[in-house]
C-alpha cells in the first residue's frame, strides 16, 4: 500500500505492526529519488556528494539492519549508503561522508554531532524517513530529530513510520509534513493489536524460580532462536551468564557493552552460533531475524507499547511464534491495564512454577526435563566463536571485565578524592602562610636529624612542638569551664616560656 503513494512523492504516515516489512516500503522510494554520481544531473546538486536521502532510526542495531536491507535493494542502483551511529570511531564515518554518499542511515545522536561539526550537509536532502518514531519519542530523541528535519530543505518528501501514534509524534507530523496520507497496515483476520501468528502465554511466576522455568522452555520441542527481554542491563547480563552455566548457547546485548561486543552477539545470533539472545528493549530494536520462534518477557513490561514491540520480534514474515510473559505478584495491577488495553483476555495469569504440569503441556516440553541442558545437546559454538571487531569505541567488551574496570576506576576516583580533600584541609589550616609553614616543617625535620646543630635549633623545635600538638585543648574546655582544666591546658605553654 505504501509504495504507490510514496513513489508519487506524497508525505506518508505509516502505522503498522512490527515485522510487516516497512523497510522496503520506504527504502525503494528513497533509492528511486536519489541521483547517483554517474547519473545525469549529479553535478547540478547544491552540494554534490552530500546525502539526498536521510533515514533516522532510534537504535544502532536498527540502523545496521536498515542499511543492510537498503544495500541489498540498491544492487541495481548507483547509490552509496553510509551508516552513521554511536559506539564506533568518528573517523571512518567522517571519511565516508567526505567521499560522498547518496543515502545516510543513522541514529539521532551521532547525526546531530556530525551535523554540528559541519561534516554532514543536509542541503541536498530530498526525502526524510523516520522509522520507529514512537521509540524515538520514548528515548527522548524527538528534539534532535526536529533539529535535523529543520536543517533539510523546505521542499522535500517526509515518510514517518510508527507502530503506535502518541500525541507528540502526531504533533511533529503536523509541523513538518504536508498533507500526509495516513496508511494503516492491518490484517483483517487479526482480531487484536498483536498478530494472529503469535501465541501468547502469560504466567505469574516467582522471581526465584524464573530461571528454572526459562531453562525448561528453552528445551521445548521445535524451539528455535529465542529472545529473552529484561528491564535492566544488570538482569540481562545475569540471566545470560546463568544460562551459559546451564549449558545453553546464550549471549547478552545491552547498553553497558561496547559496540563491538554488541555486534559480535548479534552476528553470533544470526549465524546460529548462539540461539538465545538476552536483551534490553532498546538494544533489541534492530534484531530482524525471521525465524525467531520464542520470545520471553522475563519481567512484566511497562506498558502496552513495549509489549507490542517485544512480542513483534517473533511471528515475522508469515512464521508462527510463541511469546511467554512472566508477571510478578507486584506487577498484577500494571498487567491488568496492559491486558485491558490490548484485549488479551488474560486478567489473572495462572500461577506457574518450573514443575507445573500445564507449563510442560502448553509449551510441548518433554516430561522429566531438568534445568540444565544435557551435554549431548550442547552443539552450538557460542558467542566467543564469532570474531570481535575493533571498532575504535570506548565501551566495555563484556560484562565481567567491565565490572572489574568499573571497580578499579571507582577505587582510583575515591583515592583521588581523598587526596583532594586532604589537600583542601591542609590548605585551610595554613591559609595564606603556606610558604612559612612549609619552611617551618623543613626546619623541624633538619633539627631532628642533627640535634648538635646551632644552639637555638632545639629551642625552636620546642616552641614549634605545641603548635603541632594543640588539638587536645578542646577536651579541657568541655569540663564546665573550671579554672584548673584551663591551667592544665596552659602548662605546656608556660614551661616553654
From TrEMBL:
<dbReference type="InterPro" id="IPR044742">
    <property type="entry name" value="DEAD/DEAH_RhlB"/>
</dbReference>
<dbReference type="Pfam" id="PF00271">
    <property type="entry name" value="Helicase_C"/>
</dbReference>
<dbReference type="InterPro" id="IPR001650">
    <property type="entry name" value="Helicase_C-like"/>
</dbReference>
<dbReference type="GO" id="GO:0033592">
    <property type="term" value="F:RNA strand annealing activity"/>
</dbReference>
<feature type="compositionally biased region" description="Basic and acidic residues">
    <location>
        <begin position="404"/>
        <end position="428"/>
    </location>
</feature>
<protein>
    <recommendedName>
        <fullName>RNA helicase</fullName>
        <ecNumber>3.6.4.13</ecNumber>
    </recommendedName>
</protein>
<feature type="compositionally biased region" description="Low complexity">
    <location>
        <begin position="447"/>
        <end position="464"/>
    </location>
</feature>
<dbReference type="GO" id="GO:0003724">
    <property type="term" value="F:RNA helicase activity"/>
</dbReference>
<dbReference type="GO" id="GO:0016787">
    <property type="term" value="F:hydrolase activity"/>
</dbReference>
<dbReference type="InterPro" id="IPR014001">
    <property type="entry name" value="Helicase_ATP-bd"/>
</dbReference>
<dbReference type="GO" id="GO:0005829">
    <property type="term" value="C:cytosol"/>
</dbReference>
<keyword id="KW-0067">ATP-binding</keyword>
<dbReference type="GO" id="GO:0005840">
    <property type="term" value="C:ribosome"/>
</dbReference>
<dbReference type="Pfam" id="PF00270">
    <property type="entry name" value="DEAD"/>
</dbReference>
<comment type="similarity">
    <text>Belongs to the DEAD box helicase family.</text>
</comment>
<feature type="domain" description="Helicase C-terminal">
    <location>
        <begin position="197"/>
        <end position="358"/>
    </location>
</feature>
<keyword id="KW-0378">Hydrolase</keyword>
<dbReference type="InterPro" id="IPR027417">
    <property type="entry name" value="P-loop_NTPase"/>
</dbReference>
<keyword id="KW-0347">Helicase</keyword>
<feature type="region of interest" description="Disordered">
    <location>
        <begin position="391"/>
        <end position="497"/>
    </location>
</feature>
<dbReference type="InterPro" id="IPR000629">
    <property type="entry name" value="RNA-helicase_DEAD-box_CS"/>
</dbReference>
<dbReference type="GO" id="GO:0005524">
    <property type="term" value="F:ATP binding"/>
</dbReference>
<keyword id="KW-0547">Nucleotide-binding</keyword>
<dbReference type="GO" id="GO:0009409">
    <property type="term" value="P:response to cold"/>
</dbReference>
<dbReference type="InterPro" id="IPR050547">
    <property type="entry name" value="DEAD_box_RNA_helicases"/>
</dbReference>
<feature type="compositionally biased region" description="Basic residues">
    <location>
        <begin position="468"/>
        <end position="478"/>
    </location>
</feature>
<dbReference type="InterPro" id="IPR011545">
    <property type="entry name" value="DEAD/DEAH_box_helicase_dom"/>
</dbReference>
<feature type="domain" description="Helicase ATP-binding">
    <location>
        <begin position="3"/>
        <end position="183"/>
    </location>
</feature>
Amino acid at each position: 500500500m505504501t509504495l504507490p503513494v510514496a513513489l508519487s512523492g506524497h508525505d506518508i504516515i505509516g502505522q503498522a505492526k512490527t515485522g510487516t516489512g516497512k523497510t522496503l516500503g520506504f527504502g525503494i522510494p528513497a533509492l528511486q529519488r536519489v541521483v547517483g554520481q554517474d547519473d545525469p544531473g549529479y553535478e547540478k546538486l547544491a552540494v554534490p556528494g552530500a546525502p539526498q536521502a536521510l533515514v533516522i532510526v532510534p537504535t544502532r542495531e536498527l540502523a545496521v539492519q536498515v542499511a543492510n536491507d537498503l544495500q541489498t535493494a540498491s544492487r541495481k542502483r548507483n547509490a552509496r549508503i553510509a551508516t552513521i551511529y554511536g559506539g564506533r570511531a568518528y573517523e571512518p564515518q567522517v571519511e565516508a561522508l567526505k567521499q560522498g554518499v547518496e543515502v545516510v542511515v543513522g541514529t539521532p545522536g551521532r547525526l546531530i554531532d556530525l551535523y554540528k561539526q559541519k561534516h554532514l550537509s543536509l542541503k541536498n536532502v530530498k526525502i526524510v524517513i523516520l522509522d520507529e518514531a514512537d521509540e524515538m519519542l520514548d528515548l527522548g530523541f524527538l528534539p534532535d530529530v526536529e533539529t535535523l528535519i529543520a536543517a533539510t530543505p523546505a521542499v522535500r518528501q517526509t515518510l514517518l513510520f510508527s507502530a503506535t501514534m502518541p500525541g507528540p509524534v502526531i504533533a511533529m507530523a503536523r509541523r513538518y509534513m504536508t498533507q500526509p496520507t495516513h496508511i494503516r497496515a492491518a490484517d483483517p483476520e487479526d482480531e487484536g493489536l498483536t498478530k494472529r501468528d503469535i501465541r501468547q502465554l502469560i504466567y505469574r511466576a516467582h522471581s526465584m524460580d524464573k530461571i528454572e522455568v526459562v531453562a525448561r522452555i528453552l528445551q521445548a520441542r521445535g524451539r528455535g532462536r529465542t529472545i529473552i527481554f529484561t528491564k535492566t542491563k544488570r538482569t540481562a547480563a545475569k540471566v545470560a551468564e546463568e544460562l551459559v552455566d546451564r549449558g545453553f548457547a546464550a549471549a547478552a546485548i545491552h547498553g553497558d557493552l561496547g559496540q563491538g561486543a554488541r555486534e559480535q552477539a548479534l552476528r553470533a545470533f544470526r549465524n546460529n552460533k548462539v540461539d538465545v539472545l538476552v536483551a534490553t528493549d532498546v538494544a533489541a530494536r534492530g534484531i530482524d531475524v525471521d525465524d525467531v520462534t520464542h520470545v520471553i518477557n522475563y519481567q512484566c513490561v511497562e506498558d502496552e507499547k513495549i509489549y507490542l514491540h517485544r512480542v513483534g520480534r517473533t511471528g515475522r514474515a508469515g512464521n508462527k511464534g510463541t511469546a511467554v510473559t512472566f508477571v510478578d505478584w507486584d506487577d498484577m495491577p500494571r498487567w491488568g491495564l496492559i491486558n485491558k488495553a490490548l484485549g488479551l483476555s488474560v486478567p489473572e495469569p495462572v500461577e506457574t512454577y518450573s514443575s507445573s504440569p500445564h507449563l510442560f503441556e502448553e509449551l510441548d516440553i518433554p516430561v522429566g526435563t531438568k534445568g540444565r541442558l544435557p551435554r549431548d545437546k550442547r552443539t552450538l559454538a557460542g558467542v566467543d566463536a564469532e570474531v570481535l571487531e575493533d571498532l575504535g569505541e570506548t565501551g566495555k567488551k563484556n560484562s565481567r571485565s567491565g565490572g572489574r574496570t568499573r571497580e578499579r576506576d571507582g577505587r582510583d576516583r575515591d583515592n583521588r578524592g581523598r587526596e583532594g580533600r586532604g589537600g583542601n584541609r591542609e590548605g585551610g589550616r595554613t591559609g595564606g602562610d603556606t610558604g612559612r609553614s612549609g619552611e617551618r616543617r623543613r626546619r623541624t625535620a633538619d633539627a631532628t636529624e642533627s640535634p648538635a646543630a646551632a644552639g637555638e635549633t632545639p629551642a625552636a623545635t620546642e616552641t614549634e612542638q605545641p603548635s603541632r600538638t594543640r588539638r587536645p585543648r578542646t577536651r579541657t574546655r568541655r569540663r564546665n569551664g573550671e579554672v584548673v582544666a584551663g591551667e592544665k591546658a596552659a602548662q605546656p605553654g608556660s614551661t616553654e616560656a
